[in-house]
Amino acid sequence: MKIKDIIMDGLFRQNPTLRLVLGVCSTLALTTSAFDSFGMGVAVTFVLVCSNVIVSLLRNVIPDKVRIPAFVLVIATFVTIVQLFLRKYVNALYANFGVFLPLIVVNCIILGRAEGFAFKNKVGLAALDGLFMGLGYTWAMVLIGGVREILGFGTIFGIKLWDFSIGFFASQSGAFFTYGVVIATFVTIWNAIERKQKLKSATAGVKDPATIAEEKEEN
Amino acid sequence: MNENVKGSIKAMAVLLCIAIASGLLLAICNDVFYYEAGGAEDFNALLSGNWALVEVAEDFTSDYGTVSKVAENGTSHAGFIVVGNGSGKSGAYTMAIIIDRATNKVVAVKTIEMGATSSGYDLSQDQLDAYVGIEIADATAFDVIPSGALVAGATGSSKAINNAFKVAGAYYTIHYLGGSAVDPTEEYLGYLGQISTETFTKADVDGSIAVNNGRLLLVATSQTQVGFYVESTSDGNYVDNGAYRVAIIVDRATAQIVSAKVIEDGATIPGYEVGQTTIDAYVGQAITSGNVFDNFEGGLIDSSSLNAGMTNTGWTQSSRTVRNAFSIVANYYYNAFLGGKYLADLETLATGETWTIVPFAPSTPYVDATILCLAQSSSGKVGIVVSAVSDGVNTTNIMNGEYIVAIIIDGATDEVLSAKIVKDGWVSMDIFAVPQEKVNAYVGTVITSATVFDTFEGGLVAAEGYLNYGETNTGWTQSSRAVRHAFQAVAGCYVEYSENIGG
Amino acid sequence: MNILPIILAAVLSNNFVLIQFLGICPFLGVSQKVDSALGMGIAVTFVMVLTCLVTYPIYQFILVPLGLAYLEIIVFIFVIASLVQIVEMVLKKFIPALYSSLGIYLPLITTNCAILGVAELVLTEALVTGLFEAVMYGLFAGVGFTFAIVLLAGLREKLDKLPIAKSLKGFPITMIASCFMAMAFYAFSLI
């Protein structure tokens, strides 16, 4: 039961990008293409899982008053590992991420999960929480990145769809606009689902909100 | 109090432990993921192979930048990491460049670190790929920025990247071709000075014109002449000899060769040298087509008296090599200076006509426009191909490309019969393109004077609404004004031409 | 001297918030009122200047010569956290009046990506060639941040009084307002 909650929280109920609105900087800056968004999602997921595990392991050792500096140290270590790895093996992403790669350190999602979840729970649950929070972040990133890439460049994951494109969606202002509209759509759909669930019995089958959100975007 | 201090000490100890553990972990990771720009990874990403760094010749720094790393892929390719000095607003660019050592051509290029202040001013990979295929013959290989890699609005970045290529080219010339990095232009201009009294300045070489059996070392222009310094190679039939280097001067008004001289004789067998009297046979010949010298025998030396049986053509190898030099010049002059390569555009505009090129040099240059080609048809029509650029009034690089327009005029009535844009010059947004109906607005006008189009507004595109986004204050788009420049130049050219020739 | 280009780039054409997307969290979080936005802006500017003053020499004169550039993230985040702590303590002790107005923003600043961002960007920015330029870059990046956040706060004070569809209320409408501001700033980078 607890595990199901963690999964639902990470992916939908407390989706870091769409519900909690955390880590906004990287969301706005890197969603110019679906591939960059996906790469950033994977990088953040990796750091989240690792830092959650370590923080959870050390939760009885770290004194309460220095917990924040300790978390930051752990997170910064893993971010540096990701940075070194990408620089060597996925240079294209390393170049595209630019300053936003080191800035994963101050991504509020990661510090938030370390403080709010991993510091209070067992290793297994902390890892699971990190994984699904990361996946929640990733799918939201890919959704926004996909919308912007399709509209802004006429491609998806670099594959050409058509010659039509609206430069606005590739620009900085397009990032703000798309993010705002996607959140409004998601929240509206999610609220409607929750209301329906409350009316019906709690066990009724629920359509995956992600697919609904995507269907809506297609239109 | 005591408890408090104890707690603090414990906290510090824990933090220190974590910090040391992190530091150790990172030190290990740094070694495992060791990476240096210009290592095997960078070259492998461009062209997979067994790359190994080689020592860079000491202090290789020029005015254009620095070679920071050199790598070799066996003996087949050479890879360079070069820093091109910044230009304009752009900072220095670090580029990875790979050159094929068999053909001396650029095979791949990639930006390692951009120098542009924002990625909006950076060059895309497609634009960089304009360098692929360029052959490095000497240190001047990158004197001209390939048109695809000269990006409007990002000229600073384009020049910084070109600087990187210049450095790589110079290094390659010295260390792989054994050449000299000293710019040979002055030396070549000196050869032209031996046979002409005019003052020449170096011109850009149009790489799109084919050069067979040799290469153009220098093209230079003066007020009334064009000077060439050419290296031609033997066709290798029966006997071989070295390359010839010949200086040739062409008169612009008549398209005739006015003087020529062999600077380096490539004959390897004594007695086969090509003397000045042989060369003088070419003087006075007019370049009426690109292949005018291909079957010209006036400058060949009969080989029968010298060594019968060495050749099957009856002419010495060395004199045929010299003829190749003149063929290169004729082909280049016909296409680049007489506009021969634009004849096809006139032919599609007026089918069924046979065009003959007329050498034409305007008495005064036209504003923002150049005549590329002037030709007379079998039925008395006059075709003119003209290049025009924007006047640059209040423009911010949004539209500043070159427009090439082909125009046909009836020689009898002086009326514009048809016109079309051969090369569109809009750079960033296709909404700035000039539609054919606007070009057609000029058709029907009788060219009564050189200034007939100066105030003609029928072919201009109004810059309103979105189009008026800061790049014009005249009410008309930059691009349509560029096209009008083309017609203004044509009117001037046509009037002068008909006064001189047509009457 | 590169000062003028640095000022124009940092404040307008490469505005930290609207063009480079740095410091979005406080930009959205502390922009309900012009007063608090201004306070946050000044606090951020102050810390940015200090950060550049400290991290630039640390990187150039300690980490790079020792071959420890890979520790840059850890060192920077620690330096910033310590700086913020020290500033907080100094203000509390010596200038209590300033502390009472700026103090509440300081804890938020440690995890503000604009601060770590300025420390990282100052290392790669082509216009920055020395410590003086680095500090100027920090100062004007902060000014640009303050400029953007105060403008947005002004807009949001007006927006609060308007009837807005329920689903757009709050975060989404703020994003769309930011979208139009970004368009205006984007125009500066076209030149």
The overall average pLDDT of chain B, rounded, is 80
Q: What percent strand of chain A?
A: under 5%
Mean pLDDT of chain A: 82
Q: What is the 3D form of chain B?
A: flat
Overall form of chain A: globular
Helix-strand sequence of chain A: HHHHHHHEEHHH
Alpha-carbon Rg of chain B, integer: 29 Å
Largest pleated sheet of chain B: 6 strands, antiparallel
- Total number of β-strand segments of chain B? 16
| Total domain units of chain A | 1
Helix content of chain B: 25-40%
Instruction: Give the chain pair forming the largest contact, with residue counts.
Output: A-C, 39 and 42 residues
Summarize the structure.
The complex is a heterotrimer of chains A (219), B (503) and C (191). Chain A has 219 residues and is mostly helical.
Question: How is this fold's topology laid out?
Answer:
The complex is a heterotrimer of chains A (about 220), B (about 500) and C (about 190).
Chain A: H1 2-13, H2 24-30, H3 34-57, H4 67-89, H5 91-97, H6 108-116, H7 123-153, E1 155-156, E2 159-160, H8 167-170, H9 172-199, H10 209-218
Antiparallel strand pairs in A: 1-2
Helix pairs in contact in A: 1-7, 3-4, 3-6, 3-7, 4-5, 4-6, 9-10
Chain B: H1 2-32, H2 40-46, E1 51-54, E2 61-62, E3 65-73, E4 77-84, E5 93-100, E6 105-113, H3 125-128, H4 155-175, H5 185-195, E7 201-202, E8 214-221, E9 225-232, E10 244-251, E11 257-264, H6 276-279, H7 304-307, H8 317-337, H9 343-349, E12 355-357, E13 369-377, E14 381-388, E15 403-410, E16 416-423, H10 436-440, H11 478-502
Antiparallel strand pairs in B: 1-3, 2-3, 3-4, 4-5, 5-6, 7-8, 8-9, 9-10, 10-11, 12-13, 13-14, 14-15, 15-16
Chain C: H1 3-13, H2 24-29, H3 34-63, H4 72-94, H5 96-102, H6 106-109, H7 113-124, H8 131-159, H9 171-188
Helix pairs in contact in C: 1-8, 3-4, 3-7, 3-8, 4-5, 7-8, 8-9
